[in-house]
Amino acid sequence: LDRNGKKLAENYDYQQLGVNPSKLGTDTQKQESLELISEKYDISMAVIEDKLAQKWAKGDTFVPLKTLETTISHLEIADLPTGVLIGYTNKRHYPLGEATAHLLGYVGKVTAEDIKDKPYLTENDSIGRSGLEAAYDAQLRGRDGVSIVIVDEKKRTKQTLLKKEKVDAVDLKLTIDGQAQQIAFDSLKGKPATIVVSEPKTGQLLAAVSSPSFDPNKMVLGISEKEYQTYADNEDLPFMTRFTNRYAPGSTFKTITAAIGLDSGDITSTETLQINGLKWQKDASWGGFWTTRVKDTPNVDLKKALVYSDNIYFAQKALGMGENTFRNGLNRFIFGEKLDLPLVIESASISNEEKFCSEILLADTAYGQGELMIAPITQLTMYSVFMNDGSIVYPQLLQGKEVKLKKEVISEHAAKTVLTDLIDSVVSPDGYVYSLYNPNYTLAAKTGTAEIKEKQDTLGKENSFLLFFDAQNQRFMGLILSENARENGTAVEKAASIVDYLEETY
What we know:
30% of the residues lie in helices and 19% in strands. By secondary structure, it is an alpha+beta fold. Helix 11 (254-264) crosses helix 13 (311-330), helix 11 crosses helix 16 and helix 13 (311-330) crosses helix 14.
């Protein structure tokens, strides 16, 4: 269930198309009926013939041919050929389909290996194959009770040799808002991207979507080889869970660099740097490497550096504070930690080695590139410091969990300074997130771009990020990532629908 009690996964009576062999008529009538079924319901004649060739598929029996994904009407049932019937079978169903596929996962038929591993399973059972279905399989399934007793001729128990109490299956209520999940997924329009949204004071995840996706109902009902191959051949990787996949975080990470600098005293709100031109290098030792920026602003303070996303400002500030100060600040966050979530998420990492191998790597890391690798769900967790006076609130997916904190990661002053500066990204007509400005709400935001290219001065792929905060009420925050933004659109372009919903609802 979602946070509002809406079903996200349920046991559902699907219609089953089948035949009664004794009612199919003459060989000619039978052939015509089966060919009609084959064409209309996309079942190959070979499959139909195999089903009818089973030893028990004789006489007055119901032989199921296909479980139907969508319910057919009474009029259509009445129009079925003689001998063709509709039955019912109870299977797992996902009402939001593709929108929850990566988060919930799906169930599949039990295999001999499953039974060997879990002897309480039977060949007719289903088991969670991925996502939360796999993580919480035991709770969702429950366990049958069993008694072995000796009885007398009147069936009265004389001795109990073994008794195990049954364990009832339980409904799980998630923190997810099903409507937010659907809106977020729809806004990505099938492009490679992800959106994660949370309630910052509790860490409760409101949405976690990945695109493109797959239909989990097809996986339950029996996906055809052709359908599966379409997914497998899709170069945008619909089976990839992008909110748990690690990426360079791009310029959204400048918020963390800013906070570390504010706490160390290497950055102040009032200091202005004189920066000329669109590229800079410390000295000739950097060879052909230059740090570049988008906007040629000669006088740059912290607010302008955040709003205009000035790489040169943050590169210079990182070099000024030095590796030890910068790394010590980063190590206060959750790099290397495993999040307590029922999802497979590789820990965030700062660099490939324990030390930066160069000043260039230090500068690159300061503006969110270098060797930084962080999953979107972990990024959002780190950025919760700006909504919690400097403390990280860990993410949660199940309702009723105690809020878990990592206190004083940065100072309250640093958290509030950065958050306040980011309001200008939305309010200012020159800000990169002005398209989301709504005079009725106070939104703070930071855009980011992480460029992936083989060498400098060439055109690489750009992953686009948007980090946004409900600065007024502190009821929601979110992160959007759009892969290869030149082809697939920026994160900001995908944000309006979900931000509007969150502002109106939370």
